[in-house]
Amino acid sequence: MIRFFLTKFLFVLSFSSFLYSEKIPEIHEFIDKNAQYFLTVIKEEGSTYDNEPEKFKTRLKNIWEPMVDVGLVSRLILSKAYAGATPEQIVAFEEQTKKLLLDTYVTTLLEFEDYNLETNDEIKINKRTYEVSVKFLSSSDSFITKFSVYKNKLGEYKIINIIIDGINLGLTFRNQFQDNLANNNMDLDKAIETWEPLYIN
After folding, report:
1. Quick one: which of 173, 193, 167, 192 has its CA closest to 108?
2. Residue 152 placed within a domain
3. For 132-170, what is each residue's pLDDT tens digit?
4. Could you give the number of structural domains in the chain?
5. Burial of residue 145 (number of CB atoms within 10 Å: 0-12, 13-18, 19+)
6. Among 70, 66, 64, 68, which Cα is nearest to 96's?
């Protein structure tokens, strides 16, 4: 059953066209409010990253983690390996996933010396997910980040995928991890331990 769910959900995330767009204030606020706060912390405290990277990441982690459904993201990345994973392996993988997502996102944003963001109030809607586009603008460059969001059983909006400047992190992480798993002869413990962070240049 879980394998069927994951396959169907990945299809929705990867290949389905969004059906229509409309303004949904609560989803717009969920992304915009947190993204603006996240960006403010990076602007005001980003200079401490080189000297105290872990302390800086912990600060951002407290904003980031409540926004993301790490459990679902981890299942999607693990794909078929999830069915045979132990609870301990799942926990270890979720911790690594959180680190990868945060490192990738922070590293990307730190490349901009001065930037602001604009969150599109037109939300693209599919049967299961919503896509929110955020444009990041600096004096020299700009890029668009798209957040895939869904509402969980508790009625909370959660991020389940991010596309940064056209790079789909969910699919990239899944492919990267599956390759690493194969290179480690399907040893899940080794694959989790040796899975390196992905950085976007």
Report:
1. 167
2. yes
3. 999 988 877 888 999 999 999 999 999 999 998 888 888
4. 1
5. buried
6. 70
Query: Residue 135 is encoded by which pair of tokens?
Result: 């444009």
Secondary element (H or E) of residue 50? none
Q: Beta-carbon neighbour count of residue 101 at 10 Å?
A: 22
CATH of the domain at 135: 3.10.450.710
Ramachandran angles phi, psi of 97, nearest 5°: -65, -45
Question: Alpha-carbon distance 5 to 76, whole Å?
Answer: 10
Q: Convert 40-71 to b/e letters by CB count within 10 Å (16 or more is b).
A: eebeeebeebeeeeeebbeebeeebeebbbbe
The per-residue pLDDT for range 71-109, each reduced to its tens digit, is: 999 998 998 899 999 999 999 999 888 888 878 877 777
How many CB atoms are closer than 10 A to CB 73?
A: 24
Confirm whether 199 is domain-assigned: no
Element (H, E) at 41: helix 25-45
